[in-house]
Design a protein that fits this description.
mainly alpha, 0% strand, globular
């Protein structure tokens, strides 16, 4: 008699927290709150398929700083409500490439030209790349003088949004 093997799932954002069998989602509760307790479209059914706000969330900044490309994709896709196919079309990639990246079977983007092309295809503000470049989740807020300035407002001010 064979026993069913238990599948261990971890949070797609922090990659640390084990997900309970009662949690059907891909994020742990703290990451879920950090991502989705933000100002959202009034209609929960409305799609915010660019999800520009997600680049300025703690879980996204942390994933970028640790160069966790699979987490970046999972967080972005979830926030934008996109399927792998839709994300692939938007980024000019194949659906299998997105799947391989999310599954960790393919390395992230290390060529700066590819990274910028990918970021631009998702309307990612260029200042949101600072955690990638400096390896620190708070890199942008450390460099900006105003405490109320976010990645998005800095990107617009710099002409990148």
């Amino acid at each position: 008699m064979s026993r069913a093997r238990r599948v261990t799932r971890v949070c797609g954002a922090c990659r640390k927290t084990l997900l309970s069998g009662y949690n059907p989602g891909t994020f742990c509760t703290p990451c879920e709150r950090a991502l989705f307790d933000r100002q959202h479209p009034a209609d929960p059914g409305a799609r915010d398929d660019m999800a520009a706000w997600v680049w300025d969330t703690g879980p996204m900044r942390e994933a970028l700083a640790r160069l966790d490309f699979p987490a970046v994709l999972v967080i972005y896709r979830s926030a934008a409500g996109l399927s792998r196919r839709e994300l692939a079309e938007r980024a000019g990639l194949s659906e299998s490439a997105i799947w391989c990246w999310e599954a960790g079977r393919r390395q992230g983007i290390y060529d700066i030209r590819q990274l910028l092309q990918f970021a631009d295809s998702l309307s990612m503000p260029r200042p949101a790349l600072l955690p990638v470049i400096l390896g620190q989740p708070g890199a942008l807020s450390d460099l900006l003088a105003g405490p109320g300035t976010t990645v998005l407002t800095a990107g617009v001010a710099a002409g990148h949004g």
